[in-house]
Amino acid sequence: MRNLLPLLNSPHSGGRSALTCRYRCGDACFQEVPNTSDNEYVGDVIAGALSRRSMMRAAAVVTVAAAAGTAAVAGPGAPKAVAAEADLRSRPQAGATSTSARGLRFAAVAPNTTDAVTVPDGYAQNVVIRWGEPILRGAPAFDADNQTAKAQAGQFGYNNDFLSLLPLHSEHGRQVLVANHEYTDEILMFKGYDPAKPTREQVEIAWAAHGLSVVVVQEERKSGKLTPVTCHHLNRRLTATSEFKLTGPAAGSALLKTSADPTGTKVLGTLNNCAGGTTPWGTTLHGEENFNQYFANGSSATDKRYGISTGATERKWELFDKRFDVKQEPNEPHRQGWVVELDPYDPDAVPRKHTALGRFKHEAAQPRLTADGRPVVYMGDDERFDYFYKFVSSKRMKKGSSRAAREHNLTLLDEGTLYVAKITGDSPGEIDGTGKLPNDGEFDGSGVWIPLATGTTSHVPGMTAEEVYVFTRLAGDKVGATKMDRPEDVEPSPRTGRVYVALTNNTDRGKPGKAGADEANPRNLNKHGQILELAEHWDDPASDGFAWRLFLVAGDPEDPATYFAGFPKEKVSPISCPDNVAFDPHGNLWISTDGNQLGSHDGLFGVATRGERRGELKQFLTVPKGAETCGPIVQDRRVLVAVQHPGEIDGASVEKPASAWPDGPGKLVRPSVVAVYRKDGRNIGV
Predict the structure, then answer these.
(1) Do residues 607 and 584 make contact, with C-beta atoms less than 8 angstroms apart?
(2) What span, in angstroms and rounded, lies between the C-alpha atoms of 377 and 261?
(3) Selection from 579, 610, 609, 607 nearest residue 593 by Cα
(4) Calpha distance 501→488 (Å, rounded)
(5) How far apart are alpha carbons 185 and 183 in whole angstroms?
(6) CA-CA distance, 601 to 110, in Å (whole number)?
(7) pLDDT 10s digits, 434-466
């Protein structure tokens, strides 16, 4: 038996460097937890509850009996599977076939600390695009020693995260790549950077390096290689100074008005865009996450609930634009923290910030459709002990690409009902904090969706609808939502309709004065995280309840506290800190990690979600030193990843780089997008 992999001796949450914590999220995990409500933790609920085992089994039987009657209801975008809840609660079988699940038939990459993107034998890779490469007409080539804000506004932005590839049917072999640019690390961008005295030029370059990029890419016919098409008419940059519009029920609210925008409908910029989603109607969604760190001098209770500092910010933008000083513009922070919708096919369209989806630290937003064509969006609030949400639209998607259809579909996320989750477990008294499975053989339970607001109607006592949307965290506090452990990316399976929630980690769990382990979070001092799988009642995304169970409990497979959906643990790759998730064409879940605590670099993993190989998890790649794996896309012929913050190691700087990726020694370390494909041109993992 091999020894457990060594833990990193990092004082920062999830194995991140202090530099990453400082610039990415403003040291969020080392600030006071914003949620001070007395809502019950999952463990508290379980301790006082009777087991629901017999009730849930009966519900599953009813679902199976109804399956024949509901099978024909499936409509556009609805999952093909029926009786998903009953199937969710069935026990997985390990099986003994000699080959991996289809889509996962590659030689797993071993854990490593190589300063490169390491891929399986038989696979090749190329850097699709780097920070600073020109994408707009007139933009200059990147020059590390002569950066300007004007140049950066026409170049690919910094720290790419979420990625989306959309078809470009009118141009053979081309697709539209959309990328988030989450944050900037000025220490790794500028020679001689002084954090105490940033210059206006440095600040304005950082503003231009945030936001979104749209760039058309060309594929090589005989491989999966992609290259950018410079100066294409669809190419676009959106930055911290671009115009966005607020839409939906809170648009125009007094809570959103500022001296620069007395209408409460026009916002400059989008900040800290993390993960996102691609809609069935051909647009992209972008989650504004750790926006709080950009605002100085907060003082109100709502500022505190959203983690806004009472002092100066790290980047000191408040010295150059009063909108980042809460004393001068108290409503400006209310205009960040939304889900942004972008139409990549219209370079002139003003992107929308959808107030109906609530304001919090959005990690991502991926829709699925109900049987009658209404979008449902699942969302996590990436904070210790915060909540998990969904939005159900009241409007149906129109098919086709006509102007009328596209204009209608851009309003789908402006009308509907916003919900927050409350969950319970089925094995009270059996969770001891070690990760030991309950006697019934799995961590599982049930949940309900609590409505918060519908249009201009609030369902939260003491709060108006506008207050619910702008202060969504407080609304969750009031209705007793369940405190979760950093719910990050959330993805519904396009094949089964099951929803997968990445819970990255929470090393505070079980500490004195903090919540102990519960069935959804079964380990104290949880360094490695887990993935929760849920099935809506009757396989209906608009339902008011669901069943859930833990699909993976991450860590070294030799650790008895880990769990891989029942698959033999000696046959899986070690994984730590799941973050972004995506699906491949075969229905496998792909997981990127952030802050690996097992002594290896972060990576990308594929895991089977169905059949006798369910739980079989294999590592596909690792990223360079200091980097995080983001934005995975898995197509038939290629895998794309966003290599974010390479070289972001404590003590690193432009003068003292910690990584030589992607261009070798002597070159500036640059976040980039990478494509991986088979050398023989065949499909991935088959």
Answers:
(1) no
(2) 29
(3) 579
(4) 7
(5) 7
(6) 10
(7) 999 999 999 999 999 999 999 999 999 999 999
CA distance 442 to 681: 41
Question: Residue 368 and residue 366: Cα distance in Å, rounded?
Answer: 7
Nearest-5° Cα angle at 184, 473 to 644: 90
The set of residues, in sequence order, having a beta carbon less than 8 Å from that of 566 and lying 6+ positions away, is: 91, 92, 93, 94, 441, 442, 614, 615
27: its two tokens:
């040291």
Q: For residues 262 and 267, what is the distance between their CA atoms, to the nearest angstrom?
A: 11
Q: Is 186 helix (H, G, I), strand (E, B) or coil?
A: helix
pLDDT interval class at 15 (50, 70, 90): low
Spatial CB neighbours of 407, under 8 Å, sequence gap ≥ 6: none
In this predicted model, what pLDDT tens digit does every residue of 479-534 receive, in sequence order? Answer: 999 988 889 999 999 999 999 999 988 888 888 888 788 888 888 888 899 999 99
Torsion angle, CA of 385/619/536/362, rounded to 10 degrees? 40
Q: Work out the percent of the chain whose per-residue pLDDT is above 70.
A: 87
Structure tokens at 159: 């720290």
Q: Which helix (H) or strand (E) holds 86?
A: helix 84-88
Q: How many helices (H) and strands (E) does the chain have?
A: 11, 32
> Is the four-CA dihedral 311, 315, 321, 324 of positive or negative sign?
negative
Q: Mean pLDDT across the stretch 77-104? A: 49
| Among the listed residues 553, 554, 550, the one whose alpha carbon sits nearest the alpha carbon of residue 534 | 550
Residue holding tokens 């229905």?
Answer: 587
Instruction: Establish how many alpha carbons lie within 13 A of residue 453's alpha carbon, considering only the half-sphere containing its beta carbon.
Output: 30
Q: Which of 222, 227, 228, 229 is nearest to 677 (CA)?
A: 222
Taking only the tens place, the pLDDT of each residue in 19-28 is 887 886 676 6
Pairing verdict, β 628-634 and 160-167: unpaired
- Alpha carbons 133 and 111: distance in angstroms, whole number: 31
Residue in the block written with tokens 């009777």: 50
- How far apart CA 678 and CA 685 sit, in angstroms, is 9
Burial class of residue 480 in the structure, from the number of CB atoms within 10 Å of its CB (0-12 exposed, 13-18 middle, 19+ buried): middle
